[in-house]
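User: Please fill in residues for this 381-position structure.
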């Protein structure tokens, strides 16, 4: 089992088919797993390694289908419905689930080749399962059974801990003597609804293999790249800033960034000798202003020393988000701005023939009558 030591207050991240046959399931507490399977070997969770392998596996899947959902660390779902002709996958429309640590489906020659490639490029080898719904595919991958069979029969032997409900419901089901999904599927729906409400109905549907949940792939990250060729090779700060200003103006003017701000700007310069120098800027706050981005970039370029003259400069905007708003001061500080304000108000009073702008002053702050505490006085009087 993977997740840590049984003495830790943690959950099972992954387990072997033998442990699952003993009643262990991902998401179960390690102490509960030890009680069900005393002879199991517990391995620590290498989160960084799982994250790196999961990213590599996600890239391999996106080569075949754009709908890839990251359901957890090292756990991916992908939709292959409609990809048979364009991508060369299997004949039946289905969903596939992939977990770190198992084999894949053997039926389709194209799929076998894809499984071999993923197994060669990921360590340990990935586990694959497929079914009509992502939950069935997930159980197939977790149990090292590549294809989810006919609904309830395939799920009957699994423990109730695999249900995506609150742990308190798992405990209550155990107290009622319901330990497997097959037992839960055989109960009347009305009884589960009366005992657990909507969660009971959802658990009954899942135990019977009924699942209409859809994949929710993460939106593709928006990246805008622009590059400008310099009129002549240059190494001066002024030439680099001029090219960067043009590149930033084009990038922020992209229609895809309309009404959006960015968090990160990557700047690079293509040198005359064929090499490239790059700098990465992370703004303190998201910005949609190319002038602000150029101001921040200037601080990086002032200390830059190029090994050869630059022939081009470019930028890449990343981390797009909703536009970030700032509350500005009504008037900038300074005596000059205050005099301009006084003159403008005096002109307004002169044109109107009377006071038009007032200020609030304290008169009798100790009074219990609110009208006597404050008063309106003409501005400038």
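Assistant: Residues filled in for all 381 positions:
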């Amino acid at each position: 089992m993977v997740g840590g030591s049984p003495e830790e207050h943690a959950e099972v991240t992954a387990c072997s088919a033998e442990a699952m046959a003993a009643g262990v399931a991902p998401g179960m507490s390690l102490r509960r797993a030890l009680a069900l399977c005393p002879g199991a070997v517990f391995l620590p969770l290498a989160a960084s390694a799982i994250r790196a392998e999961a990213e590599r596996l996600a890239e391999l899947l996106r080569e075949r289908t754009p709908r890839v959902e990251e359901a957890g660390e090292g756990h991916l779902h992908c939709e292959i419905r409609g990809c048979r002709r364009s991508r060369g996958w299997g004949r039946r429309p289905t969903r596939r689930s992939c977990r770190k640590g198992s084999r894949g489906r053997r039926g389709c020659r194209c799929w076998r080749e894809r499984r071999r490639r993923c197994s060669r490029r990921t360590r340990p080898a990935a586990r694959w399962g497929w079914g009509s719904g992502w939950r069935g595919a997930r159980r197939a991958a977790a149990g090292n059974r590549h294809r989810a069979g006919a609904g309830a029969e395939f799920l009957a032997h699994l423990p109730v801990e695999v249900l995506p409900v609150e742990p308190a419901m798992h405990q209550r089901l155990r107290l009622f003597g319901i330990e497997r999904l097959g037992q839960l599927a055989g109960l009347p729906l009305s009884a589960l609804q009366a005992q657990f409400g909507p969660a009971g109905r959802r658990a009954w549907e899942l135990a019977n293999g009924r699942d209409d949940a859809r994949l929710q792939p993460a939106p593709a990250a928006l990246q805008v790249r622009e590059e400008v060729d310099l009129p002549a090779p240059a190494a001066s700060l002024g030439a680099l800033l001029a090219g960067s200003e043009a590149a930033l103006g084009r990038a922020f003017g992209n229609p895809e960034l309309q009404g959006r701000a960015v968090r990160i700007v990557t700047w690079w310069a293509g040198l005359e000798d064929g090499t490239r120098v790059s700098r990465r800027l992370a703004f303190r706050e998201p910005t949609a202003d190319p002038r602000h981005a150029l101001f921040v970039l200037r601080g990086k370029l002032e200390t830059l020393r190029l090994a050869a003259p630059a022939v081009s400069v470019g930028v890449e905007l990343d981390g797009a988000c909703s536009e970030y708003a700032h509350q500005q001061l009504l008037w900038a500080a300074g005596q000059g701005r205050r005099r301009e304000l006084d003159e403008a108000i005096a002109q307004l009073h002169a044109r109107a023939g009377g006071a038009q702008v007032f200020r609030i002053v304290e008169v009798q702050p100790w009074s219990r009558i609110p009208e006597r505490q404050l008063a309106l006085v003409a501005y400038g009087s």
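For context: Residues 1-45 form a domain with the MutS, DNA mismatch repair protein, domain I fold (CATH 3.40.1170.60).
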